[in-house]
Amino acid sequence: QSPFLHIPGTPLDPIMALFEAYNHDSRPEKLNLVVGVYTDENGSIPILDSVRSAEQEWFAQGKPKNYRPIEGTPGFRRSVQDLLFGEDSEVITDQRAATLQSVGGTGGLKIGADLLKKVLPDAVVAVSDPSWENHRALFEAAGFKVVSYPYHDPQSHGVRFDSMCAFLRTLPAGSIVVLHACCHNPTGSDLSPDQWRMLVDLTGENDLFPFIDIAYQGFGRGLAEDALAVRLFAQAHRDFLIASSFSKSFSLYGERIGAATIVCGDPAVVSRVEGLAKRLVRTNYSNPPTHGAAIVETVLRTPSLRSLWESELGHMRTRIRRMREQLADALDRNDLGGSFQFIKAQNGMFSYSGLSAEHAKTLRDDFGIYVLDTGRICVAALNDGNLDRVVRAITHVVK
Ligand code: PLP
Questions:
Q1: pLDDT score, position 14
Q2: What digits encode the pLDDT tens for the residues 231-260?
Q3: What range(s) does the Aminotransferase class I/classII large domain occupy (predicted)?
Q4: CB contact set of 61 (below 8 Å; sequence gap of 6+)
Q5: Helix (H), strand (E) at residue 128
Q6: Cα R_g (the chain), whole angstroms
Q7: Is residue 58 annotated as a catalytic residue, yes or no?
């Protein structure tokens, strides 16, 4: 008898389930505000000019498709660290961090989770309430108990920072705290610089292990601004982990490119930590793929492409902000019994819009507009061509 017969049905996570429903929807006017993908003014996923040039350069070199080092090339790893810490960072000069290329940001989280399971096997992992759907699932799959710390405040549409801190103080020493560096997914609400400083102290005093997920660097306020949390923790000379994703910032979703960076308070342990991480990769997928990393490395290490990329990233960031402003102002003009100005204060691709599960269902059923039941909207999928329709539909379901 087949051992597979005993597998119970496994539900898709809500994002993937709605994405499938969207794909099967035959209405031509359907609109996907569910998935975390940036689309441009025309509703297309852009191929950045910087990426295209780097690809052409790479292909022209005609390099053989050898295996890559388990950890990725030195140029890629250095570029990731430059982006995270800033080029003059003392973490880099003191060689206090090990970076490994990963299969997307998710792969970076997975390398980190597996590594932490080896060194903190009994740790509790705390993720924000709410968080990216896959955080809980990924850490549970790595064998951890996962709890949620308070984060979103539906009243103020901001962060319940006091409750968050109070909860974190109750965690046992050695617990792991997963933090979104910027552009919190799904709420769009980020901590202020002062709150980050307090959190660095709090996690230090309570011996909590920070794991920073940075999937949207450059989508919030700017490349350096969005890395503030990473840089503050780095200055504290402590051990912590970072998972980087380049899916959104380079519009390279399907190339699956990201990194895991392990920062150590003591440079003497870096090579041992890196050795263990490489072992985990070796026994998982052996070596990382070439293409995405070659593009990211070429863009970041070629000054002209780097500045082109920064301006393209800036364009995506500004366009999202403009969509936030137009959405908030248009909804407020329709007098829906409460202000939507909070949407402007949020960062990144997503907005917790305040819409209910019932609203989301009507938007889907009656208008073909796909929004998560939590009310999360992907603002990065709005454009001048679809905004009016979205505003009219939201107005209809809310009024
Ligand atoms: N972390 C967060 C908070 C995300 O929102 C995402 C993607 O949506 C990821 C990690 C994973 O990124 P990637 O697609 O590069 O694996």
A1: 80
A2: 999 999 999 999 999 999 999 999 999 999
A3: 29-394
A4: none
A5: strand 124-129
A6: 21
A7: no
What is the pLDDT, as a whole number, of residue 12? 80
**Residue 132 appears among annotated catalytic residues:** yes
pLDDT tops 90 at residue 79:
yes
Specify whether the CB–CB gap between 165 and 205 falls below 8 A. no
Length of the chain: 399
* Residue 324 contacts residue 344 (beta carbons within 8 Å): yes
Whether 106 is in the pocket of ligand 1, judged by its Cβ within 6 Å, is: yes
Q: Which of 114, 213, 226, 309 is catalytic?
A: 213
What ipTM does the predicted assembly reach?
Answer: 0.99
Q: List own/partner pairs for 132-136 with CB under 8 A and 24 or more apart.
A: 132/180, 132/185, 132/186, 132/213, 132/215, 133/13, 133/14, 133/15, 134/13, 134/106, 134/109, 135/109, 135/178, 135/213
List all residues 6 or more positions away from 239 whose beta carbon is below 8 Å from its beta carbon: 209, 262, 263, 264, 265
**The whole model's pTM is what?**
0.96
C-alpha 309, offset from chain centre: 19
> Is 213 annotated as catalytic?
yes
37 pLDDT above the threshold of 90: yes
